[in-house]
Design brief:
With about 80 residues, the chain is mainly alpha-helical. The protein is about 35% helix and about 5% strand.
Amino acid sequence: MLHEKGRIHLDGDLESWIIDSTAPFREAPFTHEIAAASRRLRLPQRDPADRFLAATAKVLDLTLVTADASLLGLGEIATLANR
């Protein structure tokens, strides 16, 4: 959307850029288990995107890397500051 609005510029067409940029990464699935876990988390904010990211880290036993101070030190989820 930012590319379409001209707020950022990506070389080439968007689909090719996404394929090239994400090639070295694995995608985490969004499952019903993650959706349910997002509702059970005790987070200081209600932002659904933050809840889904934190729940994904918890369910898949991943470390959540974030610059959002309110998501650091959640206790039940491993976190790492990205500052």
